[in-house]
């Protein structure tokens, strides 16, 4: 398998962490796509993903799978434990719910802030709406407070075991740190959770 990525970005981090948690890292070749230099817009990459985004998983039979949740779903079902996307219908539904909230309330929100209210990717940005970016920054801050409440009294978002929403939220906080916004000091549960996740071997993957 190959994963086309730009290692500094949060969505490739999600795929790397999932692969590491599943013990699949040694079976994957990671291919760097220089997004700031526009390599994700070149014809050869657009053949893999017409949307022009990383990461993209390419299987041994040349099947290309884009979209981070699809990639991590495939990785989760490619090996045994730990199970990151749920074993029972209830778990799968809860994980899907928290996964979407981690995206919408933190990762996607702070990404919008980066792309719209800062220089972002510079000349590669097709359009920037600063007001939208600033609004999304506030969404991300509120999202951190929301997840601080979710984590009250438990080690991970769904209890005592790490699942995909934890990885997604961790990646979102990495971008928040990069943007020099930071986690509010009042979010004690979230801060403790981030330290706990950051100590996992997969976080260094």
Architecture overview:
Helix 1 packs parallel to helix 3, helix 4 runs parallel beside helix 6 and helix 5 crosses helix 7. The protein has a four-stranded mixed sheet, covered by helices on one side. It is α+β, with helices and mostly antiparallel strands and 205 residues long. Strand 3 and strand 4 form a beta hairpin. The protein is globular and about 50 Å long. The protein is built from seven helices and four strands. It folds into two domains: 75 residues, 3-Layer(aba) Sandwich (Glutaredoxin), CATH 3.40.30; 112 residues, Glutathione S-transferase Yfyf (Class Pi), Chain A, domain 2, CATH 1.20.1050.10.
Using the CA coordinates, give the radius of gyration: 17 Å
User: Could you give the order of the helices and strands?
Assistant: EHEHEEHHHHH
* Stretches with pLDDT under 50, minimum 5 residues: none
By secondary-structure content and strand pairing, the structural class works out as alpha+beta
Distance between the termini: 17 Å
| Number of separate strands | 4
CATH topology of the largest domain, what is it called? Glutathione S-transferase Yfyf (Class Pi), Chain A, domain 2
Strand arrangement, major sheet = 2-1-3-4
Helix content bin: 40-55%
Oligomer: single chain
Write down the domain tally.
Answer: 2
Count of helical segments? 7
Under the CATH scheme, which architecture of the largest domain would be assigned?
Up-down Bundle
Q: What is the highest CATH level, the class of the largest domain?
A: Mainly Alpha
Q: Per DSSP, what share of the residues sits in E-state strands of 2 or more residues?
A: 5-15%
